[in-house]
Amino acid sequence: MKEDGIKRIKSGIPGLDEMIEGGFPLPSFVMAAGEPGTGKTTFAVQSLFHGAKNGERGVYITALSEPAWVVQKFLGHFTFYDNKLIETKKIVFLDIGDTIKKQPSYILNVLEKEIEKYSPKRIVIDPLTVMRVAMQDDRSYRDFLHDFMLFTKGFDCLTIVTGEVQYSHIANNMSAYMVDGVIILSYAEEENIRRKYLEVLKMRGTRHLTGRHSLDISKNGVTVQPGLR
Ligand SMILES: Nc1ncnc2c1ncn2[C@@H]1O[C@H](COP(=O)(O)OP(=O)(O)O)[C@@H](O)[C@H]1O
Ligand SMILES: [Mg+2]
Asked: What does the pLDDT look like over 15-29, one tens digit per residue?
């Protein structure tokens, strides 16, 4: 704990922690938002593996759009991926696609039950956007998100949710208002090269760097180069 009294947890993303006073506040609920292919899944899962290597349990929750095994197959190419951490249940992959499809009103119950079962230090929901589709209206979704955030706070953990959101829509996205932190992943076409970027839009309790910073994805996962724009 630092002198400001805020406990922090390392993101597991090289370059990011120095942009946010050493890590995410604990507990906190952070959204990684961006268009498809910007690196949201890689970002979130890399953080889970970083924690699991240090003994912290992680839970990865996915839904309809990408079954857990598809995600695992894609992630197997990264050097941070370690199957042993999955075999030993340090990282648990949960697919709640069936609940979302058949009993959307039970989503919160199912999530709470699973999280109670594992008491994780890091939770990922990828993508959260699917929950909005499952809920009937904005009101139900807002209630769901509010209740779920409150629930996870009780575990003193880091929750990372991903949002498939168009760049221009992120700032006025409802969930972006509600969560503790928003990280935008983006790309831009420059000189015929697609560059990727990371921007910390907000992070409660944290003096963070602003603006877009260069983001690199390689077989080692996601790296940020603070200062490189
Ligand atoms: N080994 C790699 N080297 C470089 N880039 C990679 C590698 N593996 C994946 N990527 C990049 O990561 C992107 C997919 O990231 P992903 O985390 O699935 O994004 P999202 O979840 O936002 O859709 C791909 O579009 C690709 O550009
Ligand atoms: Mg993804």
From this structure: 999 999 999 999 999
